[in-house]
Request: fold
Amino acid sequence: MVDHDYPELDPRVEELVTEVIGRVADKWTMIVLEVLTEHGEQRFSRIAALADGISQKMLTQTLRHMERDGLVIRTVHPVVPPRVEYRLTDLGATLSEAFCGVWVWAAKNIDRIAAARADFDTR
Reply:
């Protein structure tokens, strides 16, 4: 995508934005991000309980992707049985702040969206 009003974008940035937006815009990443923002560091089982409806496999995949992207830190405590906890990194917290803007936008525009949908559905 080239816009003549802006300098050419580094292809690595474009690739990263496409990849990260695709991942973080997925339902479970957003929910896990919200859980960790609201509740702080949590064990796997607690995240699963707070992210209602997520399967163990999907939570594992989501947390691995988030850890790889630097959004969460996985801490294994040396106890028996091992205790594993997850928390947001500073990078994850800034992403959470960015998503907060989407929630504010949704709250401000919920009635307008509902009206537009109703209008569309009657056509």
